[in-house]
Amino acid sequence: MHASGNADDDRVTRTHGQHEFTTVSSADIHVGRIFALRADEVRMPGGTTSSREVVEHPGAVAVVALDDAGRVVLVHQYRYPLGRRLWELPAGLLDVADEDPLDTAQRELAEEVGFAAEQWSVLVDIASSPGFTDEAVRVFLARGLSDVGRPLATGDEEADLVFERLPLSTAVRLVFDGEIVNAPTVSGLLAAQAVGEGRAQSRAPRAQWYDRPQRFPARRKQV
């Protein structure tokens, strides 16, 4: 965290521990196509070690795509772990080796909903659940949309995917109504509203991403 000159910010910046949480040993429990699970023994502040199970993830991107009328593109798709369909931003895994996240976002926007965008910026970076996984998602803002044609669905889930354009204000209301619960979507919609109202600024489209996952992509390079 970087100090911004505010006294409260300075206090938060100075409040941090000194212990190095070194890994004593590590063992793979499962290595799959889109994630891995490992168990680490970690040196704790009291001098003992403790077991930490970590889900390794390739990382992902999501896109708040706004048209000239201020409508946001949302997809409606079935999420098996929750047992229901969710409204979400167009999104995808960083599953192409060494692909820049911006390039992934542009590809996913075209593949999922058939749009390209002239203007791109970074809204927020999210650590999805840092207590047990290194999964991180970068959410982009895309404006100046043009229709490039949605390709035919090639996967089982994509065949059921539909999308709509909703006013951004309506989508934000659905967040607070509990209708939109997907974490990158919630974060992206609220961030886009803040940027649109001049309360925040987005970042350059290739801004540094400190927490982009590294372990699982490194595994794939070794295969």
From TrEMBL:
One example GO MF annotation: ADP-ribose diphosphatase activity
Segments of this protein annotated with the region Disordered: 1-21
Keyword field: Hydrolase
Domain spans labelled Nudix hydrolase: 55-188
SUPFAM superfamilies for this protein: Nudix (SSF55811)
PROSITE patterns for the chain: NUDIX (PS51462)
Name this protein carries in UniProt: ADP-ribose pyrophosphatase
Lineage: Bacteria, Bacillati, Actinomycetota, Actinomycetes, Actinopolysporales
